[in-house]
Recover the amino acids of this structure.
């Protein structure tokens, strides 16, 4: 079945450093979504990418969707303590049933 | 606009018991999905409901069942609870079926002893 893998599992950075998490799917995706989950909280939608090679920016966050639509990345420039949390990618293979497959997430900690 | 709400917040059950979790979707959303999130893992899709019908199901046994009501609220029922069912159960509503943007509720933390 479809699998979505994320690396790294954990990332510890000093405030002000950059951070990148990578997501790889075993199958071609129709779209990919990114979510952020704060400690003790629930996943919150960040963005959706649909087109091959798409790049979207939200302030210090840059999201990319690979040309083959099988991988994606999230890059945070100059991390802040408010960026702390777990970042999940979630892929959909476009099947008729809403089976969104989440990666295991990358847990980001930021040292002030 | 009211967000997704879930009840109860926490629940403790013993092995073999049955449990019902409840969810109210965000206003205007007619699709509800349920996810199981084990500690340190990503959410795993259980099933999705649209117009009171199951619209898709993940790799979960039949003892996981659900309902959606005319007001789009939903229930997740789990029979014959097992220790491995201990997890955070998340409900998410969306505007459309399929893998549309998921608006998650705060979740119900289920502990099975």
């Amino acid at each position: 079945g479809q699998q979505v893998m994320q690396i790294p599992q954990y990332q510890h950075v000093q405030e002000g450093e950059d951070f990148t998490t990578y997501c790889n799917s075993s199958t071609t995706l129709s779209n990919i979504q990114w979510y952020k989950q704060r400690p003790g909280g629930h996943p919150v939608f960040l963005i959706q990418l649909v087109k091959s090679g798409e790049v979207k920016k939200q302030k210090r966050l840059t999201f990319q969707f690979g040309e083959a639509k099988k991988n994606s990345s999230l890059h945070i420039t100059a991390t802040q303590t408010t960026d702390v949390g777990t970042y999940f990618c979630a892929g959909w293979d476009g099947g008729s049933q809403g089976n969104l497959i989440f990666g295991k997430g990358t847990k980001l900690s930021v040292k002030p | 606009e009211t967000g997704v709400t879930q009840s109860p917040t926490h629940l403790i059950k013993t092995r073999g018991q049955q449990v019902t979790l409840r969810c109210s979707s965000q206003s205007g959303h007619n699709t509800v999905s349920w996810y199981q999130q084990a500690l340190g893992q990503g959410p795993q899709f259980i099933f999705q409901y649209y117009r009171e019908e199951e619209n898709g199901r993940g790799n979960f046994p039949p003892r996981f069942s659900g309902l959606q009501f005319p007001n789009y609220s939903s229930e997740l029922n789990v029979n014959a609870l097992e220790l491995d069912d201990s997890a955070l159960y998340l409900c998410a509503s969306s505007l459309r079926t399929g893998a549309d943007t998921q608006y998650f509720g705060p979740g119900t933390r289920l502990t099975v002893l």
